[in-house]
Amino acid sequence: MENKITTLFKIKYPIIQGGMVWCSGWRLVSAVSNAGGLGLLGAGSMYPDVLREHIQKTKQSTDKPFGVNVPLLYPDIDELMKIIVDENVKIVFTSAGNPKTWTKFLHDKNITVAHVISSSKFAKKCEDAGVDAVVAEGFEAGGHNGREETTTLALIPQVRRATSLPLIAAGGIATGNAMLAAITLGADGVQIGTRFALSAESSASEEFKKICCTLNEGDTMLCLKKISPTRMIKNNFYNRIEEAEARGANADELKEILGRARSKKGIFEGDMDEGELEIGQIASLVKEIIPVNKIINEIVSEFNETANNISAIRL
Amino acid sequence: MENKITTLFKIKYPIIQGGMVWCSGWRLVSAVSNAGGLGLLGAGSMYPDVLREHIQKTKQSTDKPFGVNVPLLYPDIDELMKIIVDENVKIVFTSAGNPKTWTKFLHDKNITVAHVISSSKFAKKCEDAGVDAVVAEGFEAGGHNGREETTTLALIPQVRRATSLPLIAAGGIATGNAMLAAITLGADGVQIGTRFALSAESSASEEFKKICCTLNEGDTMLCLKKISPTRMIKNNFYNRIEEAEARGANADELKEILGRARSKKGIFEGDMDEGELEIGQIASLVKEIIPVNKIINEIVSEFNETANNISAIRL
Questions:
Q1: Average pLDDT over every residue of B120-147
Q2: Residue B312 has pLDDT above 90, yes or no
Q3: Which SS3 state, helix, strand or coil, does residue A104 take?
């Protein structure tokens, strides 16, 4: 398969690995890129020096394209961007901010830019900002999430109508069938988070990966809507948030309960009770932790097998 | 196309029209059945005598199969079921209740039974109850909705794994592409609500249909979670609910704000400020009110065209 996404990023499969906090270090990124996808370092959970180290280690581990995901609200963003340029990174995915702010700077350094959005209104803003591709992410995605609560199934066709930019679907995609469904809806490729967060090469703690493999439907929930909507597992910490929200707690009180470094405590350090356990709805479909190349092989075979079956179906 | 769903209901296309309150009278139902889908009367908004009249008028308007959707929490349910049997209705879709309660009764009268669910846990319960098909409905659907908030994209593959029963996907499906995506995910057919609620033959008020054609992404929201999660348009009434929920109002207070007959006031009587305007997320994709046969033709051509395109794609 060759299309807008494989051509833009010079990759074999239009499969992007979401750059997730506490999961997406050099091991995951190089494994995905070596298997024919596009690995993205998750700069959101890295101090600048840590990011530099991970970029260098990724370059030592793969000669394939890879990128960095940068949440634009990152406090030391200037330093981060400087490192990205210094280290000759060629692909940046930006999220959580205005695509206008950094796209020109990055383009001037010959860096390809994709931006993550949750509505087609922002697809137009991405066009105006000159980004090279958009990631449209639905309500079912883990972690930070759009306020519109539009699901991937509803979002992709609308972003497709709004823009001709290369379109990457995200949220709820963990299998070859879901990837084919996304392409059917008009996407050119997919960004997969949860499934790779739960791979052998993910830097998430074993405790986190293990608990994710036991989830049922309904075991994650979008909460913290008065601060920034976030999907997480319903654990003790979530229950406290949920109780506070039900009685009408305001943003300040919620911030106090949230405190600092909760996602690190949960995902990276393995505190399953008091950590913020960000993961997507589709985690309940994942039942074992396997290496990235096996995940990608499974996705590719399922995609092709289902495409074969579909090719015989007409109404 | 012949499959489990077309065979079970003896219809041409595996397209079910959701039995929606205030939208699904005999005009809509007979139009859908005449066009090769399966029309369902929405008994949830009909007094028993009204249902009887609509069944009789449907029978006069089509010789094709049609059915009735019955919310099992309906207060006069015994009377409703008696009318369904008296009038020789052959297909019943049940929702909002335990599938065990009525399935045997209906089967004894030779009636085919489908049940609406929002999680794969309930798929097993449907199997145990002996229902003939399940409708798995995701978070993006309009009106009353599951507590798990699982989206259609995440739900369908999990229900598919949980049961071999004929599977109808619902929530966020308004186009041939989305129908093909649902089949890709493992569904045998689709239930379409919003698109048919916004057809020429729908009994919803012109005011309601018109406002739905102006919606953008994020203009519907799931609320009333302390009573029964319901997706509706953000209008004045919604704003009052939202304000009350944000300050922690309990179920009793919400019920008082809700009052009675709000969905009738909005959808049927056309009060766009104070009515409860139930509609799915995918309404923002619908921009004009057209007749049912044109809708079904569009869905079928798009499905076939995209299936043609997909049939050439392999990873």
A1: 97
A2: no
A3: helix
Mean pLDDT over B303-311 rounds to 93
Instruction: Please list the residue range(s) of chain A that carry CATH number 3.20.20.70.
Output: 4-204+285-309
pLDDT band at A312 (very low <50, low <70, confident <90, very high): confident
Q: What is the pLDDT of residues B25-69, one digit of tens each?
A: 999 999 999 999 999 999 999 999 999 999 999 999 999 999 999
> CATH fold of A4-204+285-309, please?
TIM Barrel (3.20.20)
Question: Could you say which residues from 135 to 194 on chain A have a Cβ atom under 8 Å away from some Cβ of chain B?
Answer: 138-140, 146-155, 157-158, 161, 171-173, 175-178, 180-186
Residues 6 or more apart whose Cβ sits within 8 Å of residue B95: B69, B70, B71, B72, B115, B116, B135, B144
CA distance B195 to B290: 10
Residue A168 φ/ψ, nearest 5 degrees: -110, 125
Has residue A261 got a pLDDT over 90?
Answer: yes
Q: Which tokens in the block code for residue B11?
A: 């219809």
The answer to whether B298 touches B36, Cβ cutoff 8 Å, is no
Per the CATH hierarchy, to which homologous superfamily does domain B4-204+286-310 belong? Aldolase class I (3.20.20.70)
Amino acid at B200: A
Cβ within 8 Å of B, A 266-305: 281-282, 284-285, 299-300, 303-304
Say which amino acid occupies B57.
K
Residue A14 is predicted with a pLDDT of 98
Range list for CATH 3.20.20.70 in chain B: 4-204+286-310
CB < 8 Å to B146, chain A:
218
- Per-residue pLDDT of B167-201, as tens digits, reads 999 999 999 999 999 999 999 999 999 999 999 99
The alpha-carbon gap from A104 to the nearest alpha carbon of chain B, in Å, equals: 28
Is the ipTM, as predicted for this complex, more than 0.95? yes
CA distance A133 to A52: 25
Q: What pLDDT is recorded for position A61?
A: 98
CA dist., res. A266 & res. A212, Å (int): 12
Tokens of A125: 């803003």
B217 and A155: CB-CB below 8 Å?
Answer: yes
Distances (CA, A) of B109 to A264, B65, B81, B98, B103: 59, 16, 11, 19, 10
Q: Which residue matches tokens 């029964």?
A: B228
Per the rule left: phi > 0, alpha: psi between -120 and 50, beta: everything else, A209 is: alpha
Phi, psi of B312 (to 5 degrees): -95, -10
Of all residues in chain A, what percent carry a pLDDT higher than 90?
97
